[in-house]
Amino acid sequence: MIFIPELELLPIRAVMHRTSDADKPFVFPVKRLENDTVCLVPFDVASQASIFVEGTKHHPKLFEYTTYGPFQSVEEFEDDFYWPRVGEKEETVLWSIFKKQLADQDEKGSLLAFAGVLSLNNSSRVNGVAEIGHVIILPAFHRTHVTSNAVGLLLCYTLDPPPGGLGLRRSVWQAHADNQASRRVASRMGYTLEGIQRFQRVMPEGKQGNAIDVVGFPSVIEDLGPSRDTAIFAHYCDEWPGKRDTILQVMNGKS
Questions:
Q1: Residues of 225-241 as b/e, b for ≥16 C-beta within 10 angstroms?
Q2: How many CB atoms lie within 10 A of CB 166?
């Protein structure tokens, strides 16, 4: 099931009792989230960074539309992604996604296969908002309902009222305007497309932008890479009660 044949499936108890992003400062409570399909565990950079790098480094297309990656070493992952974008930011927290596998009859409980990561970004207590992002799913788990279940769990956590959820006003999803796969996920998960922000951010050299030649637009900022247009999607607190059951059906593979 996983593109790292030398890795064994992990017992749930081996994953749950490690220090992780549950211990880092974040504007909202951080906890494990799970259903019958997946388990979201606060990311443990010490034990899971190497698994993520090994699982993704031979699949550069996973990072085609991101401003980071692919990573060839744990050090590169930590220096270019984890610490500047997650570890040092109180508004961002990262979860590891584990796909539940049936254990042998002589084993107790399920076994977990590392399937990828996702995060809450740009989270604000003042505005009651959080963005689901950094969604990287290993190729072996594409089209297995891992993405819809992981995203759905975070949607329920952010938009459901307390005590089960945070009761936020708004959940955001941003996608490179050319990233049709990401846009399809947002639509499937019930997000409303609010519009396209042109020239919303700058991509590193070598990454795909909006294909507009900006050479003729001088700037005091040197060495800017290509610009990307960004599709902005959102869920809203007043619409969530009417959408929630549909999202659960998507998670269960019934829609």
A1: ebbbbbbbbbbeeeebe
A2: 20
